[in-house]
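Before a colleague's protein record goes any further, I have to sign it off. I want your independent view on whether this chain really folds as the tokens say. The record follows directly below this note.
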Amino acid sequence: MTVAIFVGTASIVLLVYWFRYTSLLILSTKTSQDFSFDIAHAHELQFPEVRASLSALPADRFSNLVSGIDHDYRLVSALLRNVESNDGGSFLEDAILRIDYVGLKVAFQLSKPFSETIARHALTEMADVVAHFANAVGERSMAADGSGA
């Protein structure tokens, strides 16, 4: 029985580690052209300002940032659903990052009262997920325009 508990726990820990590593690997990839700022400007998204001001902002203002990032996330997710993708791998990446975003939001809520550093890191990564999705909207829009011509 003890061995089964140990193996089950180790499997869960390794799965979480793999998931976090994969999420960070997806977020660290750079494309030849970054469309995230163009999409942010066109749709009046707040994530670029959040990313820029997060390091100097006091922890009591984090709640305002979360609502802005959540708004951006919902808008960019809707835009992403409306843009066709011919790349089957992007579905899996998008799903992993959506789950990661929810996990980061939970981590932020849990860590906010105890650790400003962890809460700040979670907010930063949430903004990175939104930026990644905004860039994907731009890439897929360009690909759709290019293939239709």
